[in-house]
Amino acid sequence: MSEEQLPDRTDAMPTDDMREQRLRKMKKIADAGGRPYGYRVDGIIPCLEAKQRFADAPAGTEVAARVAGRIVARRVMGKSLFANVQDQDGQMQLYIQKNVVGDEAYEFFLKELDIGDIITAAGTVFATRTGEVSLRTTIFELLAKSLRPLPEKWHGLTDMEQRYRQRYLDLISNQDVRETFQQRSRIIQEIRNYLNSKGFMEVETPMMQPLAGGAAARPFKTHYNALNCTMYLRIATELYLKRLLVGGFEKIYEIGRNFRNEGMDRRHNPEFTVLELYEAYSDCRGVMALIEDLICTVAQNVFGTLQFKREEGEDLDFTRPWRVATYHELITGRMGPDWFDLDLDTMRAKARALDLNIPETMSALDVTHEIYDKAIEPTLIQPTFVTRLPAHLVPLAKRCEDNHDLVDVYELVINGQEISPGYSELNDPIEQRARFDSQLIGRDDLEGEVNRIDEDFLIALEHGMPPTGGLGMGIDRLVMLLTGAPSIRDVILFPQMRPQK
Question: In this structure, are strands 251-259 and 201-202 parallel, antiparallel, or unpaired?
């Protein structure tokens, strides 16, 4: 009997009818003194490990093993039954014979268990005549009765919205999705391993803050009842981490969530994960070298390569050294060597010729950055450090020694998007206050959410912060880059979604 001919086939039933049928089975098991929902099981090994133990054993040897997982397929052949169970990393085929497990247990598996149930099975691992490594099952136990059917007969979820809303079903039915999130975990672990090996200390800073500082973004607002005050979910970790530099910690990092009450698209989620680190007595060039080495190390350790294929366009090559180009060079390379000598009207006209939206209120600096943002950055596919940006764009960075109109920063762009910014950090408290003040000129108040200066941070800075190199890196974007995921939602387990009505 094939899988499609199983007597308990229910995939054509409406979901409510299937649930009622499975509820009856659950009650029948309980009424007979069984346990539809089991307890702890010791001695379980992963399916892949069981297969590896068999592969490592002498030829012709069967290896004892106990596995556990979800039933994802089954079929009957005479007085034998084959079933596939899936755990976190792989699958194992169970070979269940009536004369081995007994008539009662065999009939129980056949009639009371369903696709989706979670079981444990023990026996010996062997290879079938077709060469498939399987578990010759001697005993099994139901651990969790599944009351709802799995999606689409195990061909996987295809509706993108359902995949994001019901990620648990996506993980059950799509092996590639499970692998992406396992890779994400390994990427983050390798980042920690790298930084710890370089003498950095991991720290934690507040996620609820009395001021939303460290970046220009609209925050999420909440109310702290115990203190009867407004609080904000942090939009950046920067200002608290710099307080720790003042306190004497010299090499620190934090991997954590930031929150920005703004739009969602393929590259943005309002809740996202960031690495931010600071190294005292370093500068922009120091953290440029660090981020290049970090990303290459992570790529090599997790994926075993520095070359990554893209579905469209040129493949990514992380082979070092990476390109370094100044902001000025990129602008003049696209717009002509005389760009910065043009009058404003000519600048606006040339920018509009690129199909950019350039209102009359835009200054020359704004027009130039719109060109960079919309017409240049998306073309930077291979790793590129963009350096020496205009000072008004980066209020927390140190000015270049040879040109105070520029700041000593980099923006690392890969595959047309910024992956990491890094600075020679501003540690002059007088200039920092002036920068904060100028940043607020002409800004909308946003109900008092942004237009306040963090006086405690400035007081800390007045106690003295050493020259410092700092950087941030979007973890979600790095995972997208290395796994080839097309959307940030594909690398966040539970992305934000519009509530269902």
Answer: parallel
